[in-house]
Amino acid sequence: MMRFFSVDWGTSSLRVRLVEITDNSISVLHERSNHYGCSYVFDLFKSEKDNIVREDYFLNFLRPYLVIPDMYNDKTIPVVISGMATSSIGIRELPYAPLPFVCDGSSLQYDIIPHNSKFGHDVLLLSGLCSTNDVMRGEETQLLGLLSYNHSTEALFILPGTHSKHIWVSENNIISFKTYITGELFQILSNYSLLKNNIVKPSSMDKEAFKKGLALSRENLLHNVFTIRASSLLHAMESSANYSLLSGLLIGTELRDITASNIPIYLCAHANLSVSYALAIQELSLQQRCTIVPPEQVDKSVIYGQKKILERVWNQLEALK
Description:
Blueprint: E1 2-9, E2 14-21, E3 26-34, H1 38-47, H2 54-62, E4 79-83, E5 97-98, E6 101-102, E7 110-113, E8 123-126, E9 129-130, E10 135-136, H3 139-146, E11 154-159, E12 164-170, E13 173-180, H4 182-192, H5 207-216, H6 221-235, H7 239-255, E14 265-267, H8 271-283, E15 290-292, H9 295-299, H10 301-319
Parallel strand pairs: 1-4, 4-8, 5-9, 11-14, 14-15
Antiparallel strand pairs: 1-2, 2-3, 6-13, 7-8, 9-10, 11-12, 12-13
């Protein structure tokens, strides 16, 4: 049996899970999550007047999430951290691993922070990947976990999110990837742009408006974004419908890139995005070559990926005890 704290620390979110691994299963014994991402903590650190090292500040912030009342307070349990924690706004900046990247995790850059008087747990920091013109931190670890569900020698993995990733895998290597700021652009346009007064989140997706957005994605994006406001002014388009229309427009623009290919697709979306992307896949006639990975499996993919890396370096961690 193995236990570890799985920490997925993104730009705008923090998720900590206590994981127990046996021969037959992986169980999440405890979980905490919030919006205290690396960007938030880094801003707190910069405003700190005391002379404190950034690494210590981040680990001090993390410490309360590793204490579980009436359950576990075992400092021999290692902490595995992936995501933006190894970026310039994280715990300790680590270099990216280049492509091609072997999907057994052997070429992933990592660092170990041994337990000490300030922080009682051994910490395994996992870095990210880079191509000649793109970068990722965190999704590579998620993909290592997702590959358990890949039954093809060549495939495209789509990981929707704030910064959606399209990752091409061939013969157990990541050979290429592209980042799309789909989620971030949606947040900017709906909350901070001229459109903010014309967009309201509905209780459920307006499928017809979403499909209309997908159809519009064939045309010029910059013009069609403005037509959302114009439609509200001239045709009294409902603000709740505009939400779905903008979502369809941006997701459609993202997915247009892959419509000409015949490579198998694996859609790996969390529950909050799975329905939208699955509908887009269907409307763009991509469903015949697309496998939709269940959201509950996507949810645990980071854990499976971290487990793969942890098993590779377990002996190094054991030597620190």
